[in-house]
Amino acid sequence: YLFQAPITFYTQKEQWDMAPGMTGGFNSRFSRVIETECITCHNGLPDLVAGSVNKYSAVPLGIDCERCHGPGSVHVSRIAAGISVDTANDIDYSIVNPRHLSTELQNDLCFRCHLQGVNVLHPGADYADFKPGMRIKDFWNIFLPRFDGKNDQFLMASQADRMVQSKCFISSGKMSCITCHNPHISVKETTVAQFNKPCKDCHTGPNNDCTEVLSARKLSNDDCSGCHIPKSGSIDIPHVSISDHKIQVPGREAEKPEGRFTGLVALTDDQISPVNKARGYLRYFESYVSERSMLDSAAYWLQQGQKDPLYGPTEIHLLFLKNQYGAVTERAAKMVVDKVDAWTAYRIGESWMMQQNAEKALPWLSRAVEILPLNMDFNLKLGSAFYVAGETDKALERFRFICSEDPLYEKAWMNTAACLLLQGDLNGAESALLKAIALDPDYLQARVTLTDLYLKKRQRSDAGKMLQYLDAYHAQEPIVAELRRRYRSL
C-alpha cells in the first residue's frame, strides 16, 4: 500500500517543506493514498493489485522508456532474435517512436502528464490503460477552468494548457511539445539557441521581425523563448519556478482586468456530453474549488442529459455532495444493488448511515467492498455499519482484516478496540489502542478511549500519563475536562 509522505524535498531550492496540499489545516499525515492517477505520471507504470486503489505488487524505481515508447517486449524479442530495422530509412513498428506519430498523438502523449486539470475517467477505464499512440479522450476527459480576463495564474503541470492558448499553437496547427523539446535531453542541458530555433524557423521574413527595440534585444541576446516564455511560479506547488508556455507578448496579460471564472472546458475532446460536463464540475468541486456555484453548474448540465446511462450515478454523486442524503436514498430505491458501481454504492450506503440507518446501509456498503475488496476506507465504513447495527462479531472481523492487510491504518485499530471493549476484552482493547496511538500520536479519540479504559481499570498512573498529553494539546475539549475530574476523584 502506497501513501504520500507529508513532507517533500524541493530540488530547485534544495529545501524540505510540507508537501503540496498539506498546509492550511489539510495535513493528512501519512494517509494520502497514492492512486494510479498520480503514480502513472510520477513513475513508471506499477502493477496494481486487483480490487485495490493503492496496493501494488511491483513499483518501478523511476520513469522508464515505456512511458513514452509504449510496451517494449515485442521490440526486445525481435532485437534478441536478430531482427532489426534500419530506422534511418524505415519505421520500426515493433515499438512506438513519438516522432512518427501525428501531432495530435504526440501531444496526447505529453498531455498525459503535463496537462494538469480535472480528470474524469470513463466507466471501466483506468489511468494505466493509456499507452503511447492512443487518444486520452478514449479513456478520460481533462477539464480546465477558463476566465474572461486576466489569466496569469496556473498550476505546476499546466504546460499543455498554456501552450494551446498560444497564438503560435493555434495558427500553426502543427506545434507539439517536441517542436521545442528533445525528450532525451534535460531542459537544463538544452541551449538557448536550440530553444529559439523553432521560433526563428517559423518567424521568417521582414514581416516577422521582432518588434522589440534593438537595444533590448541585444541585452537579452535575442532570446525569443526567454522573453515570450518567461519564468513564473505556480499556484499549487511552492518553491518552484516554471516556464509559462502561453507564448505571448510580455505585459499584455497584465493589462487585462482581473479574470472572472466562466466555466470548465475539456481540452481532450470537443464533443463532451452534458452529463460528462456535470461530472467535470463535481470533480472540480471535490478537488479544487468547493463553492456552491460548481454544484449549481453540475446540476445545470446534468438536467440536459437525463437519458444518459451515467445520469443516475452522477445525480447520486451531486446529491451526496450537497449533503441531501434523503434524496440520495430516495433515488437509490429505483436502483438494483448489484448493478451499481463501487462509488455509487458507497455514497448510497454512507447516506443511509448519515440518516442513522445502518441496516439499510449494509447491502450498499457490502456492494462497494465486493467490487473493491482492498479499498480500506470502504472496508472501514462497512465494519462501522456492522458495529452500529449491533453485529459486533462481523464488525470485528472486518476491522481485523484491515489491520492484517494494512497494519498502518490507525482507524482500524481504534475500531478494533471499540469492538473488543464491547466484548469485555480490555487487554486486547488496550493493545489495539496503543497501536493506534503509535501510528498517530495525536489521535484524540484513541487517547480519550484509552484514558477512559485506564480509569475504569483503576490504573491511575497510566491514566495520568494520558491526561498529561490531553491537557497539553486538547485541554479545551469537554471530554478532557470530564476525564480529568474522574482522575482526581480516583
Average the pLDDT over all residues and give the rounded result. 92
Count of DSSP-assigned helices: 22
Identify low-pLDDT runs.
none
What distance lies between the first and last C-alpha atoms, to the nearest angstrom? 44 Å
Radius of gyration: 28 Å
Task: Write out the strand line-up for the largest beta sheet, numbering strands in chain order.
Answer: 7-8-11
Structural class determined from secondary elements: mainly alpha
Strand element count = 11
The rough form would be described as elongated
The helicity comes to: 40-55%
Strand residue percentage: 5-15%
Helices and strands, with pairings:
Elements: E1 3-4, E2 7-10, E3 15-18, E4 32-33, H1 36-42, E5 47-48, E6 56-58, H2 66-69, H3 73-80, H4 103-114, E7 118-121, E8 140-147, H5 159-164, H6 167-172, H7 192-202, H8 214-219, H9 224-228, E9 231-232, E10 242-243, E11 261-266, H10 274-287, H11 292-302, H12 311-321, H13 325-332, H14 342-354, H15 358-371, H16 376-388, H17 392-405, H18 410-422, H19 426-439, H20 444-456, H21 460-473, H22 478-489
Antiparallel strand pairs: 1-4, 2-3, 5-6, 7-8, 8-11, 9-10
Helix pairs in contact: 10-11, 10-12, 11-12, 12-13, 12-14, 13-14, 14-15, 15-16, 16-17, 16-18, 17-18, 18-19, 19-20, 20-21, 20-22, 21-22
